[in-house]
TrEMBL record:
Keyword field contains Signal: yes
Domain 4-O-methyl-glucuronoyl methylesterase-like intervals: 208-356
Keyword Coiled coil: no
Domain of life: Bacteria
Name of the protein: Acetylxylan esterase
Keywords: Hydrolase, Serine esterase, Signal
Organism: Zobellia amurskyensis
InterPro entries per the UniProt record, alphabetical: AB_hydrolase_fold, GCE-like_dom
Lineage of the organism: Bacteria, Pseudomonadati, Bacteroidota, Flavobacteriia, Flavobacteriales
Gene3D superfamilies: alpha/beta hydrolase
GO molecular function: carboxylic ester hydrolase activity
């Protein structure tokens, strides 16, 4: 049932009074004082809450999965890169789902670090490379991106290359792995045609109340891509990246899979890096109304009732500690609440400090185009909801401090 939503609030003076749950105080009131206590007493209970009440549990293990390199060119992009296209097969209950990884690795660099991220409309949209396979999966229509009849065609090749500065990554010695998220689970309120359906019991048509929504399914897909990347001897480590809804998925993937060396959240907003209790911009009620398939069904009880949540999104960020984490916002992206993302990073930093890692100090302020590059990093750039060269310049500079 869709609930009537109040007008979105963009006025700081109208934010309700709220307290930020202390990540270092357990649900039973125990004070956490060191990283060992955190690991043994606190981290698991936070993780289990997010898993059961927000993103939803993965219901079972796969029966099997497979990888096959279906195309390779060691002299791609004018000789700059090795290109691989890898078909991944997932099997459960006699049902199969397939998706493709597009992988570029820089020539002349052994054991390169790699950025792994989902794209919104197909691997062929991130580059003008004519050899990249066009996705056959359901695709959201977009006049601007030349996608109609829910099908990608040659007309949409390279239409999102502006968000993926592949040459810059390669020149700096980084690789890129990307997957079209719609091949994992089409982004529509229909649980019949994606990853979820592999796991259904007979006559089941949607996940159970505390089982995974689409964000958790997309996070699961990132981990299955990692299964391949983790065994490619030309790759040293993998940093998972996501923008907007896919930033939410990247954060949950980082929280659920410790193999990711670092995590980048770009404008992930509500249900991602932004504090929910501020009720600024997009709220839990609005996101559950607009995208009822993204989260677990159990999350809907917090729609328009953020004050009843015993956690907030800064505690999602703490689940990634002590691994490097970058949270990024844009000053004009009020829907995603840039200040709420900054505050979330600040409040998560006390867990990083348990490990002797630096984060965002409570005395820091979110200045536009002034990155704070610590183990837990943050920037708020000029402009709108997007991924820009400025963002990637910061991510690459930051990654160079830990990924070599």
């Amino acid at each position: 049932m869709l609930l009537a939503q109040p007008e979105a609030n963009y006025d700081e003076t109208k934010i309700p009074k709220f307290s930020v749950p202390d990540p270092l105080t357990s649900f039973s009131g125990l004070t956490i004082t060191d990283s060992l206590q955190w690991e043994e007493k606190r981290k698991l209970e936070i993780f289990q809450f997010f898993e059961k009440q927000i993103y939803g549990k993965v219901p079972a293990l796969l029966d099997e999965y497979s990888f096959k390199v279906i195309e390779q060119d060691n002299n791609a992009l004018g000789g700059k890169a090795q290109r691989k296209q890898i078909a991944v097969g997932l099997k459960k209950n006699g049902r199969t789902l397939n998706f493709n990884i597009l992988l570029y690795l820089p020539n002349g660099h052994e054991n390169a670090p790699v950025f792994l991220g989902y794209n919104f409309h197909g691997n062929h949209t991130v580059t003008n490379d004519p050899n990249v396979i066009i996705t056959e999966a359901w695709n959201a229509n977009s006049t601007d991106l030349k996608i109609s009849n829910n099908k990608a065609t040659e007309a949409s090749r390279g239409v999102r290359a502006n968000r993926w500065p592949i040459d810059k990554m390669l020149d700096k010695g980084y690789g890129l792995a990307t997957v079209y998220y719609g091949e994992i689970d089409p982004d529509k309120n229909d649980f019949s045609d994606g990853l979820h359906s592999l796991f259904y019991d007979e006559e089941q048509t949607k996940p159970k109340t505390n089982e995974w929504g689409s964000i958790a399914a997309w996070a699961f897909g990132l981990s299955r891509a990692m299964d391949y990347l983790d065994n490619d001897t030309n790759i040293s480590n993998v940093i998972v990246f996501g923008h907007s809804r896919l930033g939410k998925a990247a954060l949950w993937a980082g929280a659920t899979d410790p193999r990711f060396t670092g995590v980048i959240s770009n404008n992930s907003g509500c249900g991602g890096a932004a504090l929910s209790k501020r009720k600024f911009g997009e709220t839990i009620g609005r996101i559950n109304n607009s995208f009822p398939h993204w989260f677990s069904e159990s999350f809907k009880k917090y729609s328009n009732r953020e004050e009843t949540l015993p956690v907030d999104q800064h505690q999602l960020l703490t689940l990634i500690a002590p691994r490097p984490l970058y949270v990024a916002s844009a000053i004009e992206d009020e829907w995603a609440d840039p200040k709420g993302e900054f505050l979330s990073a600040q409040h998560a930093s006390k867990v990083y400090e348990l490990y002797g890692k630096k984060g965002i100090s409570l005395t820091d302020v979110h200045e536009v185009d002034r990155p704070i590059q610590q183990t837990l990093a943050y920037h708020m750039r000029s402009g709108k909801h997007d991924v820009t060269d400025y963002d990637w310049d910061q991510y690459i500079t930051w990654a160079e401090t830990f990924s070599r």
